[in-house]
Predict the structure.
Amino acid sequence: MTATPAVPVNAADGPNRQSSWLRRNRIKVAPWLFLAPALIFFFVYVIVPIIRSISISFYKWDGLYQADGTSNAEWVGLQNYINLFSDDRFYTALYNNVLWLVLFMLAVPIGLGIALFLNQTVTGMRFYKSMFFFPFVISQVVVGLIYGWFYNPDFGVVGSLWKLAFCEEVVNIVGNLRTVCSVDPPAVLESEDYATFAIIVAGLWPQIAYCMILYLTGLNNVSPDQIEAGRLDNAKGWRMLWYVIIPQLRPATFIAVVVTVIGALRSFDMIAIMTRGGPGDGSTTVLAYYMYEVSIGEYGGRFGYGSAIATVLFLIMLVYISYFLFRMYQDEKGQ
Amino acid sequence: MFPRPIEQTSGGTQIAYKTLLPISLFVWLLPLIAIFMTSIRPAEDINRGNMFGWPSGFNMIDNYTRVFTESNAVQYFLNSVLITVPTVAISVSLACLAGYALAIYKFRVALPLFFLFVAGNFIPFQILMIPVRELTSALNMYDTVQGLVLFHAAFQTGFCTLFMRNFIKALPFELIESARIEGVGEFRIFWHLVLPLVRPAIAALAVLIFTFVWNDFFWATVLTQGEASKPITAGIRALNGQFVSRWHLVSAASLLAAVPPVLMFFLMQKHFIAGLTMGATKG
């Protein structure tokens, strides 16, 4: 399997005889011709910008150029990174990113739970599966709007349910209808304590759907023999799930964890739509949003500082990327 | 099959399961149902504060038409299409070529290059933001549809190449070997032999990239400003300001923005899921 037999040289084929250099080396040259367009594109728009962002992070720069085309940037060394240490907002963003990471992981077990619930062959099951998956297809902007609406204390679902439980309508002396509540409905998105959690719940909605579909596919491929063997050994319910099913779902779990980590660290859209980083002093901000705000937001213009934040986020992500590549490398070697 | 098929359980459990299904679906989609109900209410309901009760009338067609007649939504939709379709075409074609090279040829840097594409996929957008914005301006493409297309195509090429390479790698290599022995040229092998075989992968990638790019919001806010190039995701935010407290229109507009990817999903469900769950079964 390892050593591929040499391709027989068919020198007898007439037309190929006056072989040019290109012809003789075509197996060596061809891959580069196939790769060139994608590589050039990818270098220009992905690799070079990463290097450039890291280098901008060592400058103080408002993003502008002088008339003669030289940039206003001023070398400050590690100053931007040193400033991060005394920036409260940076700590808030970092803390919120950790919250996102930890709570987003709930998508994995919940997704598995729903997948187990739906892994049946009752009539109409296909419909149920696609409807449960539905939230993933919708743009995060729309999800953000839907949940902003959902949480609204005056007329959203949360507010309305709250009123059912804690409020009653009374007619005052003038004859106007008024709602009196024993406890006012919570304005979750306006509370510094709860807003981040509310956004994470909204973010979990499509993420759970994604994990669910991964597990449904995984469950489809669980070997029936092993389940039968497990049943013969009297494994049932939780024991069966833990000792027989979950080990076989490992590839699905791996991918679910990877996409969930990336989703958590990339969170931007929902924050931009639901709270714009507020309320208070950026209480729902995360690194991705803070970077945007500092560089091109309303009071932005600090490109160097923004790049330093982006670099920190990049380094955090790099830990996961390295782990993922390491796992992939082992798979490749195994093949 | 796990859990035990419901048909094998007692009658009571079966009935319980079948009643629980629609209820759980209702709860799961409650936010969506609520916004849909709002989008078909007449304006009087909104003014009177009747947001949750039974609508006093059904104004679906009227509300949804208004979104188009009273705003720039048509332009936003057109922009989204002009951004999404070329991006899909470019990134999938480039990935077919690159994936073929990385899967078929055994050269030393094949694996490192492949990993580069994979890693590029996972990086946070913010590390690209400032330089890509500069580059787009330098190309005179800031605030244009083309500027967004070029960036999206380049970025999505990473994911597409990962997908294509793994797909082509799983094809029987003997096919290509025997074609080589026959003396078929490398490009002809790619074009006549491999390309027809990767059609399912092309379909899966096309629907996935369509959805990803259609739903993009970040790059739309970073690389565009005006009405002429804004896609629908960024447009909804503008509509939100324009339709202040006319919630029936805001919600109708939000739902409309979700229609193309949803249609794509329901029409191409098999390919969509095959694409998303790649790798979830082996490894």
Notes: Chain A has a mean pLDDT of 83. The longest helix of chain A spans residues 303-334. Residues 106 and 244 of chain A are 22 Å apart (CA to CA).
